[in-house]
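Mos1 transposase HTH domain-containing protein: structure tokens wanted.
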Amino acid sequence: MVRNLDTYSKVQVRGTARFLWAKRFKSREIHCEVSAVYGPHVMLRPAIVKWGLQFEDGRTDLTNVKRQGRATTVSKRILHGALGGRYYSQQWQSERRTHCTGFGNIRW
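Answer:
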């Protein structure tokens, strides 16, 4: 009989997947075992396959790796624009390279 766990972290689920991967379980079997304990939507099978490939490549860290080149926070100025969202719209319209004024005369 399996006991369902109500509270868990992603690291615990990945650790369980790594343990079962080390015991040579197939991704389908790992998904069945993880779903039985943590719930049906905890980790989808494509994610288990992805983590299994990373384990084969030698990955040992189970936490998320920070991505380079992405902002970790977003300021309100960027979200809403300098003038209530109109500034960025006007800036985009003035800097766009193609203008749609001549398309009305094209016959298909």
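The chain is about 50% helix and 0% strand. Residues 10 and 63 are 8 Å apart (CA to CA).

Cheers.
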